[in-house]
Each structure stands twice: as C-alpha cells, then as structure tokens.
Amino acid sequence: MTSDAPTAPDEPGTGPGPHTGPGPGTTTDRGISRKTLLRAAVAAGAAVPLLATGSIALARDAARSATGESLPPTPFCDDGDDPTPDQMEGPYFKPNSPPRTNLVAPGTAGTRLTVSGYVFGRNCVPLPGVLLDFWQADNAGVYDMAGYAFRGHQFTDATGAFSLRTIVPGLYPGRTRHIHVKAQAPGDPVLTTQLYFPGEPRNSTDALFDPALLMNVRGAGGGKEGSFDFVLNVDGDPGPGPTDPPTDPPTDPPGGTWAAGRPYAAGDGVTYGGGSYRCLQAHTSMAGWEPPNVPALWHRES
C-alpha cells in the first residue's frame, strides 16, 4: 500500500464545479420515479411488462392499482433518471483488478458497507452483463498502488443487479468520501464516475461533488447499506417479443480461439474474427463479451 495520503485532490480541479439542488441521486421532491418502481419489480421477481412498441412499459403505471396514484406516462427513463453523470478517473485507477464482489479482507479496519443496485438503459430496461470496476481508498484514506486492496470488478446479473461489500472509505485532503467506478455495457463506451455519501460536511467544499451521484445510505446493525442505480446512455434490449421469428438461417460466430465460459488471465492472448487480442483484466468470458465488444477487457494487437 502507499504509505501517505495525497495532499491535493485526486482529480484536477478542471472538472465540473459543485451543483446545487436535488439531483437524480436524491429523493427530495422527486415523487416516485419509473426506475424506482421498476427496480422494486425486478427485485421482487415480477415480470417486466412490455409496451406494444417492444420497449419496457412504465413500472409505475403497473403499480397504479396498488397505490391508487394517477401517474402520467412518459416515453423514456427521464423522470429524474437521466443517464448517470460521468466524472474524472483520477490518478489512482489501476487496470487488471481481480473479479470480486467483496473487497473486505479479514481484519480490515473500517465501517462495513454494502452497496447494491441495478444498471438500467435510458429506456428503463435492466442491463445484464455490465462490467462494473470499483476502486476506493481504505479506512485511512490511502489507495493501494502496490496491490489490489479495495479494487475489484464484477458483472451485473441477469436482472441487471449488482452488490458490493466494502467499507466506508476514509478521508484525505481535498476530497469528500467517494467510491470510484467504471461501468460498461457490452460493445458500448465506458462510463467513469464516482459515488458519494449523503450528509458529509465536505460535500459542500469538494469541487467535484455532484448530488446526482449521491447514494441512498442507511444504518444496518454496526455497518451501513447503500444503494445506487446506474442509468447508462444506451438503449437496453428488452429481448425478443412473442412474435419475433428466430434467426433464419442461424448466425454462426466468427472463428478464433476465444470461447465463452473460459477463465482468462491478464496477458492471455486469443484470436477472434481474424484479429489478435490481449487480455487486460482477469475474467470468465461470456456470450456478448467477445473481444471486439469489450475494450476494457481485451486490447486488439493485430
């Protein structure tokens, strides 16, 4: 681990300035958003209704009979649920993080924190297989640059859900408490951003703080539980409709040595579709994450 905390912010001060007023990460004066109810429906295992257009119907519309509320429909996931803002990466990112959902080692100091949520497309469709790479400071406000403490990546499950076990990060000069994350849906650009904690005194003095990136945090026994739903600037695929015909003839995948369901280590080489690729982060491959689709995992060499 590094032995001393930085004496300046971990991102240059050229980023976006402070924002005022409630953002998508807060609940003040927002009412019930479609994404919030869709999140609850997904968590409960309910089937997500489809509109005639094939896109996801408003989950809050489906809840009208239960709540008695009259909620106006809107065509996109934009009722306070705009795409998650991006933020600067900072100097402490390291590639090749290990696949892990638990960043806490035995004996680790700090207040235990579980962060969970979902990743949605802008059309309110939950996104499975999204790569989420987290990194943060330890309890003393120090980033591990020698190893991979408090670093790890995971993929959202079939419902678009994720869960991370970690600690509340410590403070260091120039910044409020925050957790870094990169999010990438298959074949789409990487979103780099940060998650913040409500009620932190330094939120008002940190030039990078954005209230749209506040988690909902509550006490849970001796620790804390936080939640945050990412909205990526992509349209999610609701899946084939009941009348969609199968592909005819079936589409054969390009040839090569890459295959789904295999564990790959950083530095491994594969071929796919006539190109050669080098693995950047250890992971188990899956359909949809072919090398051309995930530059965060594979670097094309020829």
From TrEMBL:
Domain of life: Bacteria
Classification via InterPro entries: CBM5/12 (IPR003610), CBM_sf_5/12 (IPR036573), Intradiol_dOase_C (IPR000627), Intradiol_dOase_core (IPR015889), Intradiol_RC_Dioxygenase (IPR050770), TAT_signal (IPR006311)
Protein name: Dioxygenase
SMART domains: ChtBD3
PANTHER family: DIOXYGENASE (PTHR33711:SF11), DIOXYGENASE, PUTATIVE (AFU_ORTHOLOGUE AFUA_2G02910)-RELATED (PTHR33711)
Lineage: Bacteria, Bacillati, Actinomycetota, Actinomycetes, Kitasatosporales
Family: Belongs to the intradiol ring-cleavage dioxygenase family.
Residues of the Chitin-binding type-3 domain: 255-301
Biased composition (Gly residues): 14-24
CDD domains assigned: ChiA1_BD (cd12214), intradiol_dioxygenase (cd00421)
SUPFAM superfamilies from the UniProt entry: Aromatic compound dioxygenase (SSF49482), Carbohydrate binding domain (SSF51055)
Alphabetical UniProt keywords: Dioxygenase, Hydrolase, Oxidoreductase
Alphabetical list of PROSITE patterns matching this protein: TAT
Biased composition (Pro residues): 239-253
UniProt-recorded Gene Ontology molecular function terms: dioxygenase activity
Region named Disordered: 1-32, 65-102, 235-263
Pfam short name (any one): CBM_5_12
